[in-house]
Each structure stands twice: as C-alpha cells, then as structure tokens.
Amino acid sequence: MLVVLIAASIAIPVFAQQAHFEHLDNSAPYGFEWPIKEVAVIGAGVSGLLSYRALSDKHHFDRIRIFERDENPGGNWHYSDEHAATVPIASGLGCDWWKADYTANIPSQIPFHKVYKAGSNESLRDEFEKNRINHRQPKPLWQSLRANTPAPQQQVPGFSWPFGVEWASHHSKVQRYLRSFASWLGINNGDQSTDVSYNTRVELVSKRLDNKGRQTGWTLVLRKYVQTYQGVYVEQYWEEASATGISLDINTFAKTSYLSVREHSNDPRAPIRREAHLSSVAGNTTMIGEIKAFHPIPKHGNMSTGEIELLNGTIIFGTGFRYAFPFLPQYHNSSVSGNEPADSEEQPIVTDGSHVRSLYLDTFYIDQPTLAFQGQNVGIQTFIYGKYAGEAIARVWSGKAHLPSAQAQWRHFWKTVEERGGLKKGFQWLDNELNSRSLNYFVAWLNAAAIENGEKLLELPPDVTDVMDVWMKARAAGVSVNPDGRNDLQEIDHVQHQWRAAIRDDW
Ligand SMILES: *[C@@H]1O[C@H](CO)[C@@H](O)[C@H](O)[C@H]1NC(C)=O
Ligand SMILES: *[C@@H]1O[C@H](CO)[C@@H](O)[C@H](O)[C@H]1NC(C)=O
Ligand SMILES: *[C@@H]1O[C@H](CO)[C@@H](O)[C@H](O)[C@H]1NC(C)=O
Ligand SMILES: *[C@@H]1O[C@H](CO)[C@@H](O)[C@H](O)[C@H]1NC(C)=O
Ligand SMILES: *[C@@H]1O[C@H](CO)[C@@H](O)[C@H](O)[C@H]1NC(C)=O
User: Fold this and answer.
1) What's the pLDDT at 255?
2) Where is the signal peptide, in residue numbers (predicted)?
3) Where are the domains of the chain?
4) Would you say residue 446 has pLDDT above 80?
5) pLDDT at position 135, please?
6) How far is the CA of 253 from the centre of ligand 2 (A)?
7) Burial class of residue 102 in the structure, from the number of CB atoms within 10 Å of its CB (0-12 exposed, 13-18 middle, 19+ buried)
C-alpha cells in the first residue's frame, strides 16, 4: 500500500504575487519501482480532503483509503470541550522533541481485539472514555476562535463558501464548510463510503518487502477505536495556535495574561511584521521572554518572583508548529543536527521536531517518493495551496507528471536549504513570494506535463492579493475585520474600496 501522509495546518495569511519560474531539470525522470495503484491518505483535514479530490479525479487508482482518527472530517477545525490527557512531551531540551500528542502502543500480536463491555461499571466506562479522547485528541481550538485569515483566501478552489459568509468566520463555520466539502466528495461520516475509515488511527507505516527483500509497497498498522479490529495505537503530529489571537480572546475575562515571545523571532520573511501582530495584543498583556522549560506548578508560586502562581488558573500553550510522525519511527533521527545529511542509507524526515527534511518541493520524500506529505508548509494559503500540491501528488503517482532523478531532487533540496537559511524552525515557512513561486512552479510543471500526457490544464491560483492587503492592514490598524453587511464574497471589489478608504481615514 502506498501512503500520502497528510497534516493539516491553520494557515497564516499571505498574499500571492507573480514570481519567476524556475527551470526544472527533466532530462532523467525518476522511475518508480512499482506501479502505484493503491493510496492511503492519513487524515481527513483540509489537506487530506484536497488530496482525496485530486486522487479520485484521476480514475487511475484501484483503491484510495483515508484514515482519520477523529469521528468527523475537518481535522483541526473540530472544536470540543474535551480535555486532552497528558501528552508525552517532557520539558526542556534534550528530550524527544519529535514526540507528538500520543505514542504508539502496538500489541505484540496483530490482529488484536479488545472488547469493552462496561455495562454499569463506571470505572470501566471512564477508562473507555479516556481512551476514546486519547485516540483522537482534542484539537487546538478555543471556544471564541475566529479564522485568522479571510474566507476568500481560506476557500477550496472549486468549492465556494456560501453567499454572505463573514470574512472572519467563527470556527464552527469553517468546520461546517469543510464537512460540506467532505459531503460533496461523498466521504463524510454519514456517507457509508468505503473510501474512508473514521475513528481509525495509523500506528505504524513500514515497508512491505517481497521474498527477495525488495520493497513492493507499505504496510499500515491501524487502530480503530469504536469497533476494534486490527489493534494498536499511535498518533499524528503537532500543536498550533496563534498566540497573539489567544491573548486577544482571553483578555476580556482573564485576570492576568502573559504572552511569551521568543527573542530574535522577527523573521524578515514573515508576511506581516512582528510589531504589526503585537500591536493587536490587548494592552493589559504582559510580554515575557521565551519559555525555557516546563515545570510542575508549585503550590505557592509567585509570578513576579519568577515562580508561577496559578490559583484556579489555566495555561494555554500556543507553541507553534512541531513536526512529528510517530507512525514513521524509522525516519526519525534526533542525533542529526545542522545542515548535514545523516550518516545513514536513508535520510531522516524528522530530527528535532522543528522542521521536516528530505522532501522534494516540501512534498515528496526523496529516498522513497511513494511517501508524500501535504500541508507541511507554514505561511501558505493552505486551502488553495493544497489543491496544487494534491494535484502534483496525484499526477506524479498516476504517471501524468514526472519527478526529476533522485540526484536532481537532492540537489534541489540542498539548494533550498541554502536559500532558506538552513534546516531549522521556519524552514517550511514560505513568505509571499515563495508561496507564489511554489504555486506557479506547480502549475507550470504540471501543465507542461499535461500538454504531453493529455491531462486537464490547471488554472492559475486565484489572486487574493487585494483581499489580503485589506485584511492585513485592517488587522494591523485594529479595524474590525468583520463589519456586518459589508463582507459578502460577491461584493469583494466594492467592499475593498470601502475598506481601503476606511482604513486610510483611520490612519
Ligand atoms: C470495573 O472495571 C474495572 C476495570 O476498569 C475492574 O477492575 C473492576 O473489577 C470492575 N468492577 C466490576 C464490579 O465489575
Ligand atoms: C484587558 O483589555 C481588554 C481589551 O483592551 C479589555 O476588554 C479587558 O477588560 C481588560 N481586562 C482587564 C482585566 O482589565
Ligand atoms: C509575589 O511576590 C512579590 C515580591 O516578593 C510580592 O510583592 C507579592 O505580594 C507576591 N504576590 C503574591 C500573590 O503573593
Ligand atoms: C477555585 O475554584 C473553587 C471552585 O470553583 C472555589 O471554591 C475556590 O474558592 C477557588 N479558589 C480561588 C483561589 O479562587
Ligand atoms: C542518525 O544520525 C547519525 C548522525 O548522522 C548517524 O550516525 C546514525 O547512524 C543515524 N541513525 C540511524 C538509525 O540512521
């Protein structure tokens, strides 16, 4: 079985610009070792749904299966009041940073089957409930959260938001929008589709070898919770939340609010400068430095003396992207650091959790491009970008487009490392220009291949520059981005002019 590994992300808004097209060396295309007919997609978030759409459109694959550990599609856009059980991340440096919100717990014998018959036994019911929550893990949303990127940008190409949607939609609307997209694709949880398995977590992905030891595909160990079959656990990867957004939202009812900001985090590639973000933080927020380590809360701590005082308090961690794929332990190597290749036959994908490496175009694992990753980048227009990355995966795997040779992919990768200032946190961060350049690159490459192979031509990504321009300026100036009656998608041009004028006046 072949695998697309999918990770959804909450997009940081960027705007598209024209950028130059980089020449692709196509002289010796990469040759796959076996015909790709079956695809497993891990995760039914926006990236998973977009890659499913691209893959199923091709009428090439015998089988496409999505595995989603939650009971619904939509990935991170699923709010619930549930609390996560403790996560297996310890404090400080030097521990296993690649760990995510669960660790694999694979029984020695597979298939494994465990039947819970709780009846009136409350402690068994509690255990069942705890396992159910652990299996899917609550998502990093909070009750009052609104989208931090405007609806016209956070929109699946070819599947529009309904008329009249607010630009800064409440998360429940984004969730309903994604569920309706899943319904449109026929893979929502009520659709009885055999292409998708909900409540199903991928515990382990390993190579399937033939009797001569050659790889012929991949094997997945799955754990389904509601109705156990092939037993076993593990997790997916990260935690993300917009820290400035949180402090805005909680300040109306929080007694004290601290915002931890890393020094030197003012990356010039950011689509919006740090000062602009920080200007929207409520004035009664106290800025503190980077958190060095997490400790248990002392009984009588005092924040002003460097100890923590939390009486009935809550700490919210918005610690940014952390990359971990616990179901791919063979591609973790936490002893690799810096910008060097690892001293191993196959290169690691995850090292210290700050980035993913060894991917061509941030997508295809170069040592075995039957593994692909979608939605790893930060700073991209996730809903739009996913269409093109999904098309690239679907077209390459169905033979309608080709990757360059492994050597050329590695050359490209190391060039990228150099251009982006090394393998570190932010490596996958695309600024406006890089976002736009990548999208144009996908379009030019895939269309050139389509002309040869008779595929459909892809249109250019929608230009949301003006929308983003207005949005960013409005946010930076503290202008409400959700004025009623002025936010219909159908009236963007008109709205923009009004907003522009309004913002100029404010300034
Ligand atoms: C209830 O379930 C727990 C296991 O979670 C078990 O130890 C206990 O014996 C059960 N109680 C009864 C009355 O069956
Ligand atoms: C903090 O500031 C926000 C917005 O400026 C305000 O609504 C809130 O009441 C303030 N909270 C406290 C505790 O003063
Ligand atoms: C915390 O410590 C400071 C300095 O010692 C003191 O002034 C303050 O009253 C303490 N706060 C609490 C809540 O104990
Ligand atoms: C903490 O919450 C409990 C229950 O709501 C309340 O009885 C207690 O007084 C609170 N303690 C403080 C210090 O606010
Ligand atoms: C991990 O990387 C180190 C440093 O390059 C290397 O010596 C080691 O063999 C690697 N481990 C595995 C399991 O590949």
Assistant:
1) 63
2) 1-16
3) 2-240+321-453, 257-319, 465-503
4) yes
5) 86
6) 7
7) buried
Atom of ligand 1 nearest to the CA of 119: 14
Distance CA 145, CA 168 (A): 10
Ligand 4 centre and the CA of 196: distance in Å?
A: 45
Side chain identity at residue 384, one-letter code: I
- Two structure tokens written together for 4: 């697309």
Superfamily of structural domain 2-240+321-453: FAD/NAD(P)-binding domain (3.50.50.60)
How much is the average pLDDT of 274-280? Answer: 61
Neighbours of 273 (CB within 10 A): 13
Atom of ligand 1 nearest to the CA of 124: 5
Mean pLDDT of 467-471: 78
> Is any atom of ligand 2 closer than 6 Å to the C-beta of 454?
no
pLDDT digits (tens, 9 = 90+) for 188-236: 999 989 999 898 888 888 888 888 988 888 888 888 876 442 222 222 2
| DSSP sequence for 95-145 | S-TT--S------SSSS-------TT-HHHHHHHHHHHHHHH---S--TT-
Residue 209 is predicted with a pLDDT of: 85
What CA–CA distance (Å, rounded) separates 427 from 420? 6
CA 127 to ligand 1: nearest atom:
5
What is the number of helices (H) and of strands (E) in the chain? 10, 11
When pLDDT is averaged across residues 291-316 and rounded to a whole number, the result is 54
Both structure tokens of 231 = 């037993």
Question: What is the CA 19 to chain-centroid distance, rounded?
Answer: 25
- pLDDT tier at 33, thresholds 50, 70, 90: confident
Give the residue, by CA position, lying nearest to ligand 3 atom 6.
304
Edge-first strand order for the sheet with 371-374 is 196-197, 63-67, 38-42, 2-6, 371-374, 364-365, 359-360
> Distance from CA of residue 340 to its chain's centroid?
26
Residue 22 reports pLDDT greater than 50: no
Does the pLDDT of residue 176 top 80, yes or no?
A: yes
| Tokens 């796959």, residue located | 32
